[in-house]
Design goal:
This protein has 311 residues and is of the alpha/beta class. It is 44% helix and 15% strand. The strands form four sheets. It has a six-stranded parallel beta sheet with strand order 5-12-11-8-10-9, with helices on both faces. The radius of gyration is 21 Å and the shape is flat.
Length: 311
């Protein structure tokens, strides 16, 4: 019943061309890439890793990416912000976090306890996700136990965040977190931290942020990574306290302040605990392969390392 449908996105294929089918189906009802995701996979991809009959990795056929882009070229156009907008510079940096000997020993013990039960078996997707989630929590300084209690491992990231806040010289700082216990610990160390509320209160929070009435704003990439205009404040520092696998969420989160209308350069910092799964996540994002495949490979690699260490 609509004469025209237009789709706009800043991350059309964050994990590869497999992400394009659903978006294009909304545009042309499957005219170019097929009526079903199954047909699309069969035409352009080959099954890779699987668990029984369930395939959880698809590899591109030779030249499939060029064929896909050619198929949609008449109704799709790519326009990068840096090509059309005169945006201030964005500086990306990783802040290495060195754990104390005590924290390192505790991390390694908990890592081994989680990984060793799986050392003689393949890691299925859901299990890999659970394992990587636990390891990322540990890297950030705390982890949930089986009773949803919080076990503290280290405060190294809190100390690094304090240095970033002090270096900001009173300018607002935006912090992205992935876990509730990370938010709780951040708020305990920095009571001035605010989070976005819902409804009208959230609208007021956005206005307060854009008018520099909030010094520290903590956001979750899933809930605040899309659609928010937060570029009008004098914030120059965006910090990822917890590292995340999703390339789309990471890119969209960075774009909350580094977008049209920002008047100054932006520094995006990732707090990366040395010798932990944080480094695997950062490497995956750099390869633009963030997602299930990278998660699986990282967890399997850590299993092998733990096995060798115990050998």
């Amino acid at each position: 019943m609509m004469k025209r449908v237009i789709g706009l996105t800043g991350t059309p294929a964050p994990n590869g061309p497999l992400d394009l089918w659903a978006q294009m189906y909304l545009i042309d009802q499957g005219e170019r890439l097929g009526k079903t995701i199954t047909g699309y996979r069969d035409r352009y991809f080959l099954p890779g890793k699987r668990e029984g009959h369930v395939v959880y990795e698809w590899k591109q056929k030779k030249e499939s990416e060029d064929r896909i882009y050619e198929a949609i070229s008449d109704i799709a156009v790519s326009m990068k912000a840096e090509d059309w907008l005169d945006l201030p510079k964005r500086i990306d940096r990783d802040v290495p976090i060195r754990l104390s000997k005590e924290a390192r020993a505790l991390y390694e013990k908990l890592e081994a306890d989680l990984l060793l039960p799986y050392s003689d078996a393949d890691v299925v997707a859901t299990t890999a996700a659970v394992l990587s989630n636990k390891l990322l929590q540990m890297a950030s300084g705390a982890v949930y136990d089986e009773e949803r209690g919080v076990k503290t491992i280290h405060d190294a990231k809190l100390d690094a965040l304090e240095d970033i806040i002090e270096a900001a010289n009173g300018k607002p700082v935006m912090i992205f977190y992935a876990y509730q216990h990370s938010l709780d610990r951040i708020k305990e160390r920095f009571p001035q931290t605010r989070v976005l509320r819902k409804g009208k209160d959230g609208v007021q929070d956005i206005a307060d942020w854009n008018n520099d009435r909030i010094q520290l704003l903590a956001l979750h990439p899933k809930s605040a990574g899309h659609g928010l205009n937060l570029q009008e404040s004098s914030c120059r520092n965006v910090t990822f306290y917890d590292n995340i696998w999703s390339l789309e969420e990471y890119q969209q989160a960075c774009a909350r302040v580094h977008r049209q209308g920002v008047q100054h350069s932006i520094i995006v910092s990732r707090l990366v605990a040395e010798g932990t799964i944080d480094e695997d996540v950062v490497a995956a994002l750099e390869r633009k392969a963030a997602g299930q495949d990278a998660l699986m490979d990282a967890v399997k690699a850590r299993i092998e390392n733990v096995k060798k260490g115990r050998g």
